[in-house]
């Protein structure tokens, strides 16, 4: 009788120990092609971002040049008026 209870307990313990293992799902494998396609997409995105930064920098440089020219023109006008007064 006790031997039968021990066997049942061992069977029950075995089921308890192996139950969490069955809850693990297998992860689908990612192929090399998918990895490369993903990396190519990342490279293309980086290139677009880099191009956008370059364009933005060029636009800012143009605006600063325009402002500099405006300041030069304003300074010349002030100098001209100052010379006319004195």
| Tally of helical runs | 2
- Regions with little confidence, pLDDT below 50 for 5+ residues: none
The average pLDDT score comes to 86
The count of β-strands is: 0
Encode the helix/strand succession as letters: HH
* Helix content percent band: over 70%
Please state the structural category: mainly alpha
How would you sum up the global shape?
A: rod-shaped
Largest sheet geometry:
none
First-last Cα distance: 125 Å
Which band does the percent of strand residues land in?
Answer: under 5%
Keywords: Signal
Report on this model:
The chain has 86 residues and is mostly helical. Helices cover 87% and strands 0% of the residues. It contains two helices and no strands. It is rod-shaped, with a radius of gyration of 38 Å. Keywords: Signal. Residues 1-23 form the signal peptide.
Keywords:
86 residues, mainly alpha, 2 helices, rod-shaped, signal
Summarize the structure in short.
With 86 residues, this protein is mostly helical. The chain is built from 2 helices and no strands.
Annotate the secondary structure layout:
Elements lengths: L1 H21 L9 H54 L1
